[in-house]
Amino acid sequence: MATLKPSPRIRYLFAVNPTAVLRLGLWGVLSIVLMTVDHRYQGLNDVRDVLATAIYPFHYLVRLPADAGNWLSENLASRDALLAENAQLREKQVFLNVQLQKLTVLEAENRRLRSLLESAVNTPERVLIAELLAVDFDPYRHHILLNRGRRHGVYAGQPVLDQHGVIGQIIQADPLTATAILITDPNHALPIQINRTGVRTLAQGTGNFQELELPHIPNNEDVKIGDLLITSGMGGRFPRGYPVGTVTKVEFDPGSPFAHIVAKPVAQLDRIREVMLLEGELPAVKPEPGSAVAAVQMP
Amino acid sequence: MTTAYPTGRWVIVVSFLIGFLLAGIPLPKELSPFRPDWVAMVLIYWCMALPNRIGIGVGWGVGLLLDIGRGALLGQHALALAVVAYLTLQTYRRIRVAPLWQQAFSVLVFLLVEQILIFWISGVVGYPPHDWWYLAPAVGGMVLWPLLFVILRDARRYFQVS
User: Fold this and answer.
1) Backbone φ, ψ for residue A213 (5° rounding)
2) More confident position, A271 or B64
3) Cα B7 to Cα A98, A174, A237, B3, B59, distances in angstroms
4) CB-CB: which of B1, B51, B60 is closest to A31?
5) CA of A52, closest CA in chain B: separation in Å?
6) Is a pLDDT exceeding 70 seen at residue A284?
7) Comparing C-alpha atoms, which of A20, A12, A196 is closest to residue B86?
8) I want to staple A262 with a disulfide (CB 3.0 to 4.6 A). Which of A67, A101, A249, A288 is the partner?
9) Beta-carbon separation of B130 and A208 below 8 A
10) What ipTM, to 2 d.p.?
């Protein structure tokens, strides 16, 4: 009469799932298919678009504590600190204004000389300010998420700068946000020129925020520590003449045909908060499918 | 029989949401490499506590959300978290009776497997990790496991999630 019937809780305590391996296999195959499709054929970009828009509020939620902290520290700053900061900023503004005067003169002179040389130079005039959404990405992939998207006129391939120099370029423009790849990403290369000598080469990312590598510079080339690197304008993506970095290490290895040259980006890539997006005309070179930075070409 | 019904679904959902928030919140530069994978840890806890409800499928779904949030390859975290869920389901009977610090070591192993899978996939698509720091989140996870375990266990008991 009294049959031993285990209560549901006991059954759950010792639940054994004989299909676990099968399920793992199914989900595993599904993820591999998904990853292959995502990586090889950009077919999922529309899906990503929709999903990125859907989780947009979430990014703001993540930002909220940091923003609240900033707001608090700004509002609770003492009067003295504010006055000191104010004075400092005023001083800086005077200094910058003086520099700006020089710049207008130089710009006019430059334009005159260029027209004498009959060379066309397209300097993008308008910039769009974007803020970084304070979301940490995969630390080994130097991508950042910005709070401006296609709706604000952001497009893939748009150059991104901060007040010091080049940061990177947009690789994906979603409706409300955009992802930019930094120049230090291992998959990014930027056509540059050494300002002092005019030597053209590439600056490759290393995965380290403080380092860029300059491959393909022969051993007998004139490169010194402290040389400024500027964008060369090759590849049609970045306008010419924006600062990129300074050379920090030059090693000549007699055994290899090229020197080992390392540079440090002038922009502080690991502490960006606001960036500028240059609004030029759309790039002439269309990115090829399959590579994120296809428009960066060898000089 | 009422205990057999799934209850407190929202507790599980909220715990995962908090995990997502913690995974995205900016940390000081020095601590940032040790940021544990909170979502994976929450998943391990629920797999251990409610193996009949939370399993490989949930792990996969949560991982896919993580992929979207982080802008990673779609399916990368999904695969890693499905494997973590599988490992937990296969061993939960041994782990959940162990003292907390011993549990922490098992969690370390799961998290290491997860990190290695994620970075193996990253390496395949052209982002090989350049140093050993990528294993640091697993260590952070091990250190914080007892805390998370106690909080989630109390939450589970208080809200009678079963």
Assistant:
1) -110, 140
2) B64
3) 69, 38, 56, 8, 19
4) B60
5) 7
6) no
7) A20
8) A249
9) yes
10) 0.84
For chain A, what's the residue count? Answer: 299
What does pTM read for this prediction? 0.65
Tokens 């998904």 — which residue?
Answer: A34
DSSP structure class, residue A225 = T
Distance from CA of B21 to the nearest CA of A (A): 6
A265 forms bridges with which residues in the sheet?
A245
User: Using one digit for the tens of pLDDT, what is the confidence trace for B102-134?
Assistant: 999 999 999 999 999 998 998 888 777 777 888
The answer to whether domain A130-283+292-299 has CATH 2.40.10.350 is yes
Q: Is A77 on the interface with B (CB under 8 A)?
A: no
Q: Is the pLDDT of residue A35 over 50?
A: yes
Residue A283 banded pLDDT, cuts 50, 70, 90: very low
CA distance B9 to B29: 36
Using CB atoms, pick whichever of A9, A27, A55 lies closest to residue B56. A27
